[in-house]
Amino acid sequence: MSTIHWVEARPRCARWHSESGLPLPRRVVVADDLMPAAVAHRLACEGTALLWRGDFHNARQLLRAMDRRVGRSAPEAPGRPAEAFHAHRRYRAHRARVLGKLLVLLEEDHTLALRRAPDVRRACDEAYGPPSGGPVAVALTELLGVIGAREWREKGVAVPALGARIHPHYGVFAPTRSEYVDLVARAPLPGGGTVRTAFDLGTGTGVLAAVLARRGVGQVVATDVGARARECARANVRRLGLAGTVRVTGPGLYPDGRADLVVCNPPWLPARPASDLDLGVYDAGGAMLQGFLSGLAGRLEPGGEGWLVLSDLAERLGLRDRGAL
Q: In this protein, which residues make up the domain named Methyltransferase small (predicted)?
């Protein structure tokens, strides 16, 4: 168990948690409303974490001020798209490390005991699971993401192809763009439109599995490597009344058996993800894409089809040659 230590009238400690894998802070100082943004930025750049004990809204203002200072050091984009992409990722990683040094403390019941702080208990319970005892320190940037995810989960995302809303969970890629969903909703089904079984590989929120079920596919088996995604997909399937048609499983890419249709919408870019949210965009080494392609022939029924729903962004950035597919 990773633990941070600091002095606040007396020596104190708390568990350290970072969804994005930020390293354990080795030096922690207490910060409050009196700390200037320039000092906070300098300390964070030097590797010192700042445990915030002041007003919640002032913490957000300080974070924005630190972000502006980080932005001043953003490099000019190189000329070649691939170089610009990698430079931007390096800058984003640096930004995440610096801003991730501003910490807040969640009490043992996930209460945020700061002035003017919102009630974050439900959001934290949904993101992290039930409280496991003792206080836990997290980056303010992460907590703001947890709060935002709770709002998305409550509100949902309208999906015109479904005529319904999909409710993404924390750490699961949200279908905020409809182009790829519309493609799956409109493409002619194999077998003259009669599909007994379909696989949806990397289902995420379950949106494509739901679209296939609504199109009349007899049985849809949706897989995902992530436990959060599987829980999210099951919840959406139940909410849409499709639990009798869609079965969610994992963590393997392919389920057992064969299918008339195999659909895969892999992450767009062959790069290493930094967090669960990145799994919807970055596919390290193109592993999921390769897994889909190498396993497809052995999982299709005679006359079956495989649908690869893939952005060409990697080709446009020079990260993958079109001929590689």
A: 194-310
